[in-house]
Amino acid sequence: MKHLVITLIITVFMTNISESQTFTLRSNDLGGQITNRQLGNAMGCKGDNISPELHWENAPKETQAFAISVYDMDAPTGSGFWHWMVYNIPASITLLKSDAGNFSGQDLPQGAANGNNDAGAPGYVGPCPPVGEVHRYIITVFALKAPIQLEKNASPALTGMVINMNTIAKASLLVYGQQ
């Protein structure tokens, strides 16, 4: 009887710990800074244009799909710049490998779709801040209540709106970049 009570107490304690953990986004490629690997290779930048590895944990149980965005809040556009929008990542997936955002889309999990970035193409376009400027990039994973439906040529703003309307929870990383 004593072993049963101890087992029950440990089970309740461990359940409370796992339920209290927060939805978290991490990257093995980023340590707070965009590297040359993630920088773009246009408009004066000579980076590798490779999307970072991203992984997440503790998503809400009711999650049906994920979406990810990379947004430059300091871009000199008046409205920021969307570097990557990817959506309908299956709920069973918790990792995107480095370069998953390439324009071919072949490295995304089955069912996931690269949305258009602000350069007008589907896939990841690396940051290219003006020389001497430090920009802030928000990388967010969204837990969605259902996969979303969008026209193939949907703008990043429309994609973001539909993602946000279907978000249960989100987790973000803030990283900095300069050239």
Q: What's the CATH class, please?
A: Alpha Beta
What is the strand content? 25-35%
Q: What series of H and E elements makes up the topology? A: HEEEEEEEHE
Helix content: 10-25%
Number of strands: 8
The helix count comes to 2
Global Rg: 18 Å
Category from helices, strands and their pairing: alpha+beta
CATH superfamily membership, which one?
PEBP-like
CATH topology: Phosphatidylethanolamine-binding Protein
Residue runs with pLDDT of under 50 for 5 or more positions: 2-18
> Average pLDDT, to the nearest integer?
90
How does the major sheet shape up?
5 strands, antiparallel
Our measurement of the CA-to-CA distance between the termini, rounded to an integer number of angstroms, reads 65 Å
Quick tags:
2 helices, Phosphatidylethanolamine-binding Protein, about 180 residues, alpha+beta, disordered N terminus
Mind explaining what this structure looks like?
- The chain has one domain: Phosphatidylethanolamine-binding Protein (Alpha-Beta Complex).
- Helices cover 16% and strands 28% of the residues.
- The chain contains 2 helices and 8 strands.
- A hairpin with an 8-residue loop joins strand 3 and strand 4.
- The longest helix has 19 residues.
What's this entry about, in short?
GO terms for molecular function: protein kinase inhibitor activity. The protein has two helices and eight strands, in the order H-E-E-E-E-E-E-E-H-E.
